[in-house]
């Protein structure tokens, strides 16, 4: 497990709309643009092997502004294809706050970042949600998947612990980039679960009714 002292002050960032990474979760990525191939190569040369996932912020204009909060992932798997592309897996380590962008000569973007306020992300144990009504949540999820005609490994979903279940669905379900950002910025698992429920209910019925799962 990584410690606070291991986290760098400057981080290579990968701005990707709709891509959500959360602590202790895994995000597969397909790397093929030359600038991001260089980013991967440079990251693999560092002890931490960290890449920051952060979404562009369209509300701040169209000049490439970023959301203030992203999540850093450690490259834990990678394989090269015959044509020079890479399939990698990032394992979420900790969220961070963007302080400023770094001017430099790298083809990819780098930011000065602050890790303060996200210390719980580095915990070894999964976060708990003691108010999670799991059976009701799974019934809601089943309705959502049926309405979207989506197939899933239901047995694996049912066996997942609370954090893995909530975080995996937050990352995988087809929400807008702004909805994904809200899930990322949720301060705790309980809040993320409540946000996820609200988003599913909106998708099913245009908004939560009197029978909510909050």
From TrEMBL:
Domain (Lon N-terminal): residue spans on this chain: 11-204
SMART domains: LON
Domain of life: Bacteria
Name of the molecule in the record: Lon N-terminal domain-containing protein
Source organism of the structure: Ruegeria marina
Lineage: Bacteria, Pseudomonadati, Pseudomonadota, Alphaproteobacteria, Rhodobacterales
């Amino acid at each position: 497990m990584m410690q606070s002292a291991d986290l760098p002050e400057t981080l290579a960032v990968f701005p990707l709309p709709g891509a959500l990474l959360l602590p202790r979760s895994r995000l597969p990525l397909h790397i093929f643009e030359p600038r991001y191939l260089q980013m991967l190569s440079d990251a693999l040369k560092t002890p931490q092997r960290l890449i920051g996932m952060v979404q562009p912020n369209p509300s701040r204009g169209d000049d490439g502004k970023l959301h203030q909060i992203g999540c850093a992932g450690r490259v834990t798997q990678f394989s090269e294809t015959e044509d020079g592309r890479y399939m990698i897996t990032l394992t979420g380590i900790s969220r961070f706050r963007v302080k400023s962008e770094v001017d430099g000569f790298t083809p990819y973007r780098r930011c000065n970042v602050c890790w303060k306020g996200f210390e719980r992300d580095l915990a070894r144990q999964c976060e708990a949600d003691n108010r999670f009504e799991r059976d009701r949540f799974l019934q809601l999820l089943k309705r959502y998947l049926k309405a979207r005609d989506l197939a899933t490994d239901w047995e694996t979903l049912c066996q997942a612990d609370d954090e893995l279940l909530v975080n995996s669905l937050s990352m995988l379900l087809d929400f807008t980039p702004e909805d994904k950002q809200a899930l990322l910025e949720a301060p705790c698992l309980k809040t993320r679960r409540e946000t996820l429920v609200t988003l599913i209910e909106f998708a099913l019925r245009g908004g939560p009714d009197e029978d909510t799962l909050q």
